[in-house]
Amino acid sequence: MTTMHWLPNPVDFRQSLKSALEADETGERLEKLAAVAQLRLGLVETIQVDNALKAVAREADAGIAAGFPLVRLAVLASSTIDHLLPAIRVGALRRRLLVETYAGSFGQYRQELMNPASELYAFKPEMILFSLVSHETIAGVPLTASAEDARAAVAATIDDLRVLWRMSRENLGATVIQQTFLDVTETLFGSYDRMVPGAPARVVADLNAQLAAAAAQEGALLLDVTRSSARDGIDAWFDVARWLQGKIEIAPRAAPIYGDLVARLIAARRGQSKKCLVLDLDDTLWGGVIGDVGLEGIVLGEGSAAGEAHLALQRYARALKSRGIILAVCSKNEAAIAEAAFREHPEMLLKRADISAFMVNWTDKAQNLSAIAEQLNIGLDSLVFVDDNPAERARVRASLPMVAVPELPDDPAHYVRSIADAGYFEAVSFTAEDRQRVEQYAANAERQSLRSSLESMDDFLRGLDMSLVFGPVTAVELARATQLINKTNQFNTTTRRYTAEELSTLIDDPENITLQFRLIDRFGDNGIVSVLILCRDQQDPGLFELVSWVMSCRVFGRQLEYEAMNIAVESARARGARTLHADFIATARNAVIKELFSKLGFVRRPGPAPEGTTRWAVDLADYAVQPTYIRRGAQT
Amino acid sequence: MTDDEILAMFSRTLRDLLGDDSIVLGMDTRRSDVPNWDSFTFVTFIAAIEMELGIRFRVAAVESFATVGDIVAESRTLLGK
Predict the structure, then answer these.
(1) How far apart are CA A127 and CA A396, in angstroms?
(2) How far apart are alpha carbons A275 and A462 in whole angstroms?
(3) CB A568 within 8 Å of CB A515
(4) pLDDT band, very low/low/confident/very high, at A318 (cuts 50, 70, 90)
(5) Which residue, of A167, A187, A310, B77, is most buried by count of CB atoms within 10 Å of its CB?
(6) Distance (Å, rounded) from C-alpha A613 to C-alpha A597?
(7) Confidence at residue A555, expressed as pLDDT on a 0 to 100 scale
């Protein structure tokens, strides 16, 4: 199969093409055609897009002005390649490049390269693609050839190519792309072919091995059709009927993928390959929704096939990281829960430190992808976004067309294949800088993280559309208030526990102020998430003591502590209070709020205090109301 | 598929390949009757209809095609097998 399965299927191909051609000006037409080129196209559709492109991009200047750079590519071949040119142009358009092609006369490439008066020279190619068949070399090696003779014949072919490459570079200033030799041979000895130096399959294998070594030395780029054809099956790439009918080696049905492979190299050479893999979490990096099933419930790791499938994706991501690809996370989740998975789940192969940008919140993913690009200081067109959710994929494609978003199959077992086959990270070199890049990005991201986390936190809070319903604790809320006070360990200022009867007595005493808070956001009602109790001092009626204050960890980081204190202060003032006192009694579990009172504007109160207790006070005349993103809802 | 359906598919495919919406193929149409339908486009056309119909023409059969009707008839034979 040669389908480009990572690209989304067209919904209405003809209509999309028509609408592209009806656009008013060149830039808009190119944009729309480029969008059509991002769809999963077959042979005929690829040719249709190319026909449309010819009608649009007659004037190269207009294309360049519209942000579509022009690349001049000559294809020199020893087989028929006319059907490949439209596919190359469309593959380039998929990457926002316009390729002007020149096809040398069939089998005349050597003469053309040697003749400065040839059409090839007049074309002034920036890149030259050599697409050659192996027949001549094979014909020159008898089946009975010794290892030495076979090696010499292969070396002669490679040396001949080196000369052609040098002429391309020196006489024309062109970058060379050399296609590997497709293995279209039939077996003679069976598996033993590989051990016979003159066997055709062995000659092709040796040619390709020598070719790669020579290309590396000469700085030629390699177009590895051999690998692709091995992956897709040689029958998908070579059709002997087409060879007999028109000396076509690359089968027409493989043309679209061939064009994409060439375009990857052209884009990579121009530094336009993707730089960053952005991963969703739930049902992508692991199985299941961690917010629902908890850290222990996610499907990940050895022991289950499904768990290993997700692990395989992590392994692939880590391998990409080791070749210089930046990793990022973009997920709708509670950040603390997601962080915990990275830090605590024993099967997580990816560690938090592997992730250079970590955007876990409830904000729109397109917005988060923009934030990731900004934080890493790379373009949005450098991002690949992997998400199992088709709706998220569609939304990101619609709002950020420059972000690559692969289609994923139903089964996570095939996720790696989708990402790998898409060729987003095509490289033309592997340098020391690549090896270091990830660390550089991680350091930069860390430097920026404070600023950007503040920015994105504001967006996040605003995006939550929170409102607060509050009132005194009454008999109706008693059961929930008791439960919350007795169960809460983290946000609990004094960790005092009360029975329902004790609490009932407290709330019935008119000298006390009790408050319960119900937080509602755009995802729903969180229920009663905080309770506080203020008791009037028996000697000083202007003084209230905060004897208990608890808050559910589900709403940490939502500014609820500020708004709750604003409300508590208002209630206390209404009852004639001038001062609030509060104790913070440290326990093994409540360190998360050890700075709470100083954040709220309280000051340390002098005087003796038990071990682990700090005493705080705020003069209500001095209390500064803290602005928050929480709206006041109905009072109960 | 009826002959008419096959013929309509052939017309549509050739229009798409040549970017020429005026093309209407008939049973008697010969390649030389259609502008730009050269031997290379002919091979691409054969490849495209093979993919569309899920059939493979024998190499000798392709060489013997004189009219579009010949291709329709051979297609129907292969589809019926």
Answers:
(1) 34
(2) 31
(3) yes
(4) very high
(5) A310
(6) 13
(7) 79
The amino acid that residue A426 corresponds to is E
8 Å CB contact between B16 and A201: no
Residue located via tokens 């497709």: A182
* Residue A580 bridge partners (DSSP): A544, A618
pLDDT tops 80 at residue A579? yes
DSSP helix/strand/coil, A596 = helix
Question: Are the beta carbons of A180 and A206 closer than 8 angstroms?
Answer: no
Token pair listed for A494: 């004094």
Query: Would the CA dihedral through A273, A275, A280, A286 be positive or negative?
Result: positive
The rounded distance, in Å, linking the Cα atoms of A623 and A150 is 90
Do A69-269 and A276-464 come out as alike in CATH topology? yes
| Residue-wise pLDDT tens digits, A373-418 | 988 888 899 999 999 998 889 889 988 999 999 999 999 999 999 9
pLDDT at A62: 66
Residue B19's CATH number: 1.10.1200.10
Q: What is the mean pLDDT of chain A?
A: 91
Q: Which two tokens stand for residue A225?
A: 């059709």
Distance in angstroms between the alpha carbons of the first and the last residue of chain B: 13
List the single residue in A with minimal CA-CA distance to B13. Answer: A44
Please give the class, per CATH, of domain A276-464: alpha beta
Quote the CA–CA distance of A277 and A459 in Å, as a whole number: 23
Residue A287 DSSP one-character state: B
Q: Write down the CATH superfamily of domain A69-269.
A: SGNH hydrolase (3.40.50.1110)
Partner-chain contact B47 A251, CB within 8 Å: yes
Tell me the one-letter amino acid at B74: E
Best residue in A17, A18, A43, A44 for a mutation probing chain B (most B CBs within 10 Å) = A44
CA distances from B7 to A143, B13, B16 (A): 49, 10, 14
What is the number of domains present in chain B? 1
A242–B59 C-beta distance less than 8 A = no
Rg (CA), chain A: 34
Tell me the pairing of strands A127-131 and A579-585: unpaired
- CA A569/CA A580 separation, integer angstroms: 8
Proportion of chain A in helix, strand, coil states, percent, rounded to 5: 50, 20, 35
Do residue B40 and residue A80 have CB atoms under 8 angstroms apart?
A: yes
Name A62's Cβ contacts closer than 8 Å, sequence gap at least 6. A26, A27
Q: Which helix (H) or strand (E) holds A321?
A: helix A305-322
How many whole angstroms from its chain centre is CA A560?
Answer: 32
Least confident of A291-305, A427-441, A495-509: A427-441
Question: CA-nearest residue of chain B to A17?
Answer: B16
Task: Determine the average pLDDT of the residues in A95-113.
Answer: 91
Task: Kindly give the confidence (pLDDT) of every residue in chain B, 81 residues in length, as a single tens digit, with 9 standing for 90 and above.
Answer: 899 999 999 999 999 999 999 999 999 999 999 999 999 999 999 999 999 999 999 999 999 999 999 999 999 999 986
Cα–Cα distance between A183 and A250 in angstroms, integer? 11
Closest A-chain CA to B16 = A48
Mean of the pLDDT values across residues A203-228? 96
CB spacing of B62 vs A47 below 8 angstroms: no
pLDDT bracket for residue A450 (50, 70, 90): very low
ipTM, 2 dp: 0.96
CA distances A185 to A202, A203, A235, Å, are 10, 10, 12
Instruction: Please state the rounded mean pLDDT for residues A224-251.
Output: 95
Q: Could you tell me where the DSSP H helices lie in A377-414?
A: 390-399
Query: Within an 8 Å CB–CB cutoff, is residue B81 touching chain A?
Result: no
Q: Where are the domains of chain A?
A: 69-269, 276-464, 467-635
Residue A452 pLDDT exceeds 60: no
Q: Of B18, B44, B62, which is closest to A83 when you measure between CB atoms?
A: B44
Best CA proximity match to A370, nearest among A293, A455, A310 = A455
